[in-house]
UniProtKB/TrEMBL annotation:
Binds 1 zinc ion. PANTHER family: PROTEIN SPRT (PTHR38773). This is Protein SprT. GO terms for biological process: proteolysis; response to stress.
């Protein structure tokens, strides 16, 4: 799977180098991204992270648009510095002028939500006030963090019940 994507990253860098007449350090490429984002550019680490699920489901468009989108962030950062806006005119110049692609900020890939467990919490101010917590938030409570009802300011208490969503 990563061979085509890595080749596309390299092609994007070669196009940028030909345009700007300078060399750019190649980034580390990772396939350790989950959730709704298709890709993320970590500017200071010179790292690109891609979502393998969205890559598999949207292969051609992902290679063409998403990879160029993330590479353009790294190129813009290295050319114009850290003070530019993420999808500002410098980034748009690279997307349009070098890659010949529309400077779309977001993808339109269909996201399949994973089923998750919700931990149900309640407060004292009324029946039916149920607060479904994610596993991450539930674990923070187990480590001592407290969450409060906005209405009565009482500490939310775990009911012992869970729900699958």
């Amino acid at each position: 799977m990563p061979e085509q994507l890595n080749a596309r990253v390299e092609a994007c860098y070669q196009q940028a180098e030909a345009f700007f007449q300078r060399r750019f350090p190649r980034p580390e490429v990772s396939f350790r991204l989950r959730g709704q984002k298709a890709g993320v550019a970590h500017l200071d680490e010179n790292l690109l992270r891609f979502n393998p699920q969205l890559y598999r489901e949207n292969h051609e468009h992902f290679l063409q648009q998403t990879v160029a989108h993330e590479v353009a962030h790294l190129i813009a950062h290295q050319m114009f510095g850290p003070r530019i806006r993420p999808h500002g005119e410098e980034w748009q110049l690279i997307m349009r002028g070098i890659y010949g692609l529309p400077p779309d900020r977001c993808h339109t890939y269909e996201i399949k939500r994973r089923r998750s467990t919700r931990y149900l919490y309640r407060c004292h101010c009324g029946e039916g006030n149920e607060f479904p917590f994610s596993a991450q938030r539930h674990n923070l409570v187990a480590q001592g963090r407290r969450y409060y009802c906005r209405r009565c300011r009482a500490t939310l208490i775990f009911t012992g019940e869970t729900r699958r969503e």
